[in-house]
């Protein structure tokens, strides 16, 4: 399984970015896909998640500004980030979790992408 994240960069506060994560080696449409972020010196935290049925959930601090979406035909998950803030500076990681793991049926490990760096200047 490979998850290839891209789209990070240096932007100013208030700008937008769209991250992409292309997956291979798994039955993409059946996996929950998520974006996490990790700022320097801080723990990794969940930003947004979308399940196989398309239901989404967001961290409170990104609600109304970020949108997660998936294209099962392209095996890709996106994170549209609008109105970026300096505190959004972090490495952003995509994550894939199997339906079985989600439901507690099996212990298939999560898969992680390599991270893409987002830097938001004030």
Mean pLDDT: 96
Number of helices: 1
- Percentage of residues in helical conformation: under 10%
Morphology: globular
Notes on the protein architecture:
The chain is mainly beta. The chain has one helix and eleven strands; from the N terminus they run βββββββββαββ. It has one helix at residues 99-103, and strands spanning 2-6, 9-12, 17-24, 32-38, 45-50, 56-58, 66-71, 76-81, 90-97, 111-112, 116-121. The strands form two sheets. Strands 2, 4, 5, 6, 9, 10 and 11 form a seven-stranded mixed β-sheet that branches. It has a four-stranded antiparallel β-sheet with strand order 1-3-8-7, with no helix packed on it. Strand 4 (32-38) and strand 5 (45-50) form a beta hairpin. The chain is globular, with a radius of gyration of 14 Å. The protein starts with a strand and ends with a strand.
């Amino acid at each position: 399984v490979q998850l290839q994240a891209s789209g990070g960069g240096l932007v100013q506060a208030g700008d937008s970015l769209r991250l992409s994560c292309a997956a291979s080696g798994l039955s993409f449409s059946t996996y929950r896909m998520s974006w996490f972020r990790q700022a320097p010196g801080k723990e990794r935290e969940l930003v947004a998640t979308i399940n196989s049925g398309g239901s989404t959930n967001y961290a409170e601090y990104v609600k109304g500004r970020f949108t997660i979406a998936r294209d099962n035909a392209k095996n890709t998950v996106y994170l549209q980030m609008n109105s970026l803030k300096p505190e959004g500076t972090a490495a952003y990681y995509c994550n894939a979790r199997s339906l079985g793991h989600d439901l507690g049926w099996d212990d298939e490990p999560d898969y992680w992408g390599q991270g893409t760096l987002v830097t938001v200047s004030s």
